[in-house]
C-alpha cells in the first residue's frame, strides 16, 4: 500500500471572516487532526513559484478550502495546478452572513470562533477520509484484479 | 487620492505569513481605515477581470513572509503599482524577535513585530500623502 497524503489549499482571504476561519481550520487539520496525512501549499505560489509548485494538485489529491462563494482557492488551483478532489465552502457551512463578516484579525474573532473552526475542520477531515478510502478501495481492487489475472483464476482468490 | 492597497502574503506554512497578514489588517482596520484597504490575495491569484480592473495602476504596499515574494509578484501580475515590497522576516530580525509564534498563533513577540510593521506602513502612507 502506497502512503497517501492529501493536499489542502486554503484561500486564507484577508477581506472576510470566512478567510480567517478557512485558514485556522486548515491549520488545525494540518497540525492536529490529520497531522502526517496532509500537506499544504501557499495558494499564491501557483503564480510566484515554479513548475514544482504548480504540480501540487497533480501530485496530491487536493481539497480546496474557501472562505466565501467566490471559491478563489478552488478556481486558482484548477487554473494553475490541477483538478481538485473536493471543495469546502465556509460560507455554506457557517452561512453567508457570518462568512462575509469583516472581523478578520485574530484579535477581533467572535467568542464562538473555535466552534466555527471545528465545524469546518471536521468537514475537511470527512473529505480527507473519503478521499483516502476511495484511493485504498481502488488500490485493493487493482491488486485483486492483477492477482486474478496472474493466477489465471477468479479475482475472489478462493475459487 | 484613492486608497492604498496593502496586500500581505498570508503564507499558510510559516509564522511570517501570519505576521504579514495581521500587520496589513491592523493598518486597514485600525490605523489607516480611510486611506488604506486590502484585497484578498487569493482573489488576485484567480486573475478574474473584475479584480484585475480594480487593481490596474493602484498604489500597493506588499508584505511577504518568505523569499518567494508571492504578494509582490501577484500584485504586479494583477496590474498594481507596487510602491513598497516589505519582508516581515526582516522586521522580525530588526526587532530580534526570532520566536514570534507559529503559523496559527502569535505570541507577544509576534504581535510586537505586527505593530512594528504596521507603524512602518503608516509612515509610508503618510509620506505619500505629503507628496
TrEMBL record, chain A:
<dbReference type="Pfam" id="PF08859">
    <property type="entry name" value="DGC"/>
</dbReference>
<dbReference type="InterPro" id="IPR014958">
    <property type="entry name" value="DGC"/>
</dbReference>
<protein>
    <submittedName>
        <fullName>DGC domain-containing protein</fullName>
    </submittedName>
</protein>
UniProtKB/TrEMBL annotation, chain B:
<protein>
    <submittedName>
        <fullName>DGC domain-containing protein</fullName>
    </submittedName>
</protein>
<dbReference type="InterPro" id="IPR014958">
    <property type="entry name" value="DGC"/>
</dbReference>
<dbReference type="Pfam" id="PF08859">
    <property type="entry name" value="DGC"/>
</dbReference>
Amino acid at each position: 500500500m502506497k502512503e497517501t497524503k492529501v493536499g489542502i489549499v486554503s484561500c486564507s482571504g484577508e477581506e472576510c471572516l470566512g478567510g480567517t476561519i478557512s485558514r485556522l481550520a486548515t491549520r488545525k487539520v494540518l497540525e492536529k487532526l490529520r497531522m502526517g496525512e496532509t500537506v499544504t501549499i501557499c495558494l499564491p505560489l501557483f503564480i510566484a513559484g515554479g513548475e514544482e509548485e504548480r504540480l501540487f494538485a497533480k501530485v496530491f489529491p487536493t481539497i480546496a478550502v474557501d472562505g466565501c462563494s467566490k471559491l478563489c482557492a478552488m478556481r486558482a488551483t484548477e487554473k494553475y495546478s490541477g483538478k481538485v478532489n473536493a471543495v469546502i465552502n465556509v460560507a455554506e457551512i457557517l452561512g453567508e452572513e457570518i462568512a462575509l463578516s469583516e472581523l478578520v484579525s485574530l484579535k477581533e474573532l467572535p467568542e464562538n470562533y473555535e466552534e466555527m473552526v471545528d465545524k469546518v475542520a471536521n468537514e475537511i477531515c470527512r473529505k480527507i477520509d473519503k478521499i483516502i478510502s476511495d484511493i485504498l478501495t481502488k488500490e485493493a481492487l487493482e491488486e485483486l484484479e492483477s492477482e486474478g489475472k496472474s493466477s489465471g483464476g477468479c479475482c475472489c482468490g478462493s475459487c | 487620492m484613492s486608497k492604498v492597497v496593502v496586500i500581505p502574503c498570508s503564507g499558510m506554512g510559516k509564522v511570517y505569513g501570519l505576521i504579514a497578514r495581521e500587520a496589513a489588517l491592523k493598518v486597514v482596520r485600525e490605523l489607516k481605515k480611510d486611506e488604506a484597504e486590502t484585497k484578498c490575495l487569493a482573489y488576485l491569484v484567480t486573475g478574474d477581470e473584475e479584480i484585475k480592473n480594480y487593481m490596474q495602476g493602484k498604489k500597493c504596499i506588499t508584505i511577504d513572509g518568505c523569499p518567494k515574494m508571492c504578494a509582490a509578484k501577484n500584485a504586479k501580475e494583477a496590474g498594481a503599482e507596487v510602491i513598497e515590497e516589505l519582508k516581515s522576516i526582516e522586521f522580525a530580525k530588526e526587532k530580534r524577535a526570532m520566536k514570534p509564534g507559529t503559523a496559527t498563533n502569535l505570541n507577544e513577540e509576534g504581535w510586537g513585530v505586527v505593530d512594528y510593521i504596521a507603524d512602518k506602513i503608516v509612515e509610508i502612507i503618510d509620506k505619500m500623502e505629503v507628496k
